[in-house]
Design brief:
With about 230 residues, the chain is α+β, with helices and mostly antiparallel strands. The chain has helices at about 20-25, 35-50, 80-85, 105-115, 115-145, 165-170, 175; strands spanning about 5-10, 55-65, 65-70, 70-75, 80, 95-100, 180, 190, 195-200. The protein has one domain (about 15-215): NADH Oxidase (3-Layer(aba) Sandwich). About 35% of the residues lie in helices and about 20% in strands.
Amino acid sequence: MSGIIPSLRVSSPGELRVNRKEALRYLGYGKNVPDDSVLELMDACEAELLAAAQGRACWVRVPVIVPSTFCVDLGFGPIESVSLAKHLAGCHSALLFAATIGIGPDRLIAKWSRLRPSRSAVLDALGSSAIESWCDLVELELTRDEEKHCDRFSPGYGDFALHHQKDFMQCLDMGRTLGITLSDSLLMTPTKSVTAVIGLGASARTCGNKCMFCTKENCIYREVIV
């Protein structure tokens, strides 16, 4: 994939949002209603987090090649993955996508983990909501003119191996474009960052729930599938 320059999108002031319902789910509230003190804390934390965050996203469009059953090539070599191959069935191309809301939220979470752990937990949940909302916004823009597209599918979902984070790092030049680094254990910094494949095509399948295709049932971000 040498020679392909990733496209870049940076958030405008006031553009980042959080989904309060999602943040409460990350905090474990489920269908329970938090009391007023929790809601007041979330108000304060939301303002603090959004002031410290900046959204950045980058992507490249690549053809989807299927060299063999349950094997997909997205331009950086064959990926042996049953779940990814099924997810991209019917797609002629895909977006290799990455996004972050920056290092500011990480610094806030770390600071409050020492001073007031409950505030740190709320900031963490709001940050997770903010990066997903930012991804949703950019994805909507990128796929608006497409006939159909799949939900985001990230390394670590199903049997799409996490080590492919390294391929995203190289293909999207994420250190330069987004300021993202990758640890030896394949965790990204800033932590509120996402990599994903978005399949494109008239026959692309979507279910409206990315957790449908992931087998990690103990994930704290997992949505309840009814």
